[in-house]
Amino acid sequence: MRLLRLKTVLIAIDLDETSSAALRTAEIVAEAAGAALHVVHVTHSREESETLTELHTTLRKTGLAIDEAATHVVAGDPAHAINLVADRIGADVIVLGPHRRRDAIELGSTALAVVTNAAVPCLVARSLLHLPLQRIVVAVDLSDTARGALVIALSWASALRARHPVTEPATTLTALHVRTSAGLAGAESVRSSELDEQLNRVRQEAGGWAGIAIESATTSNTVPAVGIATYVSDHRADLVVLGTRGLGLDATGRLGSVSAAVMQRLDVPALLVPPAMWTVHASSGIP
Question: Please, what CATH class does the domain formed by 8-124 belong to?
């Protein structure tokens, strides 16, 4: 298991106020990690120079100096264009803002397409990410998706953890399992035992470098997404980590029904781990 190294942070923004939390989050993550910050905007217009001027104006309004970030204005299908830029610059994370409707804030179709086709984790910031991270919650079961998400969550927690335990609360990573049925006590006992074994392997792989507390927790709810969202809210988590499946013909199917439902209920930033990340860990034998 390798320690996370964030060298390049890419933030995809619209030219409106909905991107402010995501932009600020990308800025503080890049600053904390000592990473280069890149900003991309996808335009449907051929006048890319005009759009670039508007992009610079938007950045100034948020307080970000132009020389603090590399800017990219590209045309084409938004999700494809964003992922192409991410590949070209070697991004380690793509930061996205939510889509704002009149009556709600949700993960839009572009963000869904970016996440499910990305080669790196995607941080969806509908609110500001607070650093250093104090509590991270990762949803787990016995799937390869969850195992990969757990490994990525550990690396992020370690990279962005509290560095001064005397003056800052220690950083805790919680592997959360939602029990959906109270009638199958034997099956749940076996599942809990297997999950504990999986978590112990992660602890052993981490050794002493992680510098964080790793714990497991179980909550009960007939609807997994509600159980996850409620736990995250009740425990005031700074970040929730979810694996995505990359399967199905529609965007929601590729995200995964539980992850998609959790995203509709969350107010905190979420790190979505795409198949390109978790399949590597699953095939390598890392838990």
Answer: alpha beta
